[in-house]
Fold this sequence. Notes:
Blueprint: E1 7-16, E2 23-27, E3 38-39, E4 42-44, H1 51-63, E5 72-81, E6 85-94, E7 108-112, H2 129-136
Parallel strand pairs: 1-6
Antiparallel strand pairs: 1-4, 2-3, 2-7, 5-6
Amino acid sequence: xxxxxxxxxLVAACALVDADGRVLIAQRPPGKAMAGLWEFPGGxxxxxxxxxxxxxxxxxxxxxxTTRAACLAxxxxxxxxxxxxxxxxxxxxxxxxxxxPEAREHSALKWVRPRDLRGVAMPPADxxxxxxxxxxx
Length: 137
């Protein structure tokens, strides 16, 4: 078996779902890798942090919304090899959160129907998550 020298990056992502069954996606800002692409909110885990704790922190920092670990349901995950790292990304679904999402760290936010995600430009790691999310919602 070949050894892969890419570092493993663990990132937690969240599909926030509103009362109409739409999912929130966020546009990556200029100056960041994959700028302009749309993604599920979330971010890197800090040392010693669980994926749920990372999402609670990231959703507050990035969107100004709060939630609890009990409101985060694991749905699926992505495992994707980029050129310089390998991304492992669990995707959680959250239907219960407080506050109105605002783009604090992204260029824009939008609510979309899961079936419409296929027409959205997303990072390669996010794309395989769409089918499972569409099946759920």
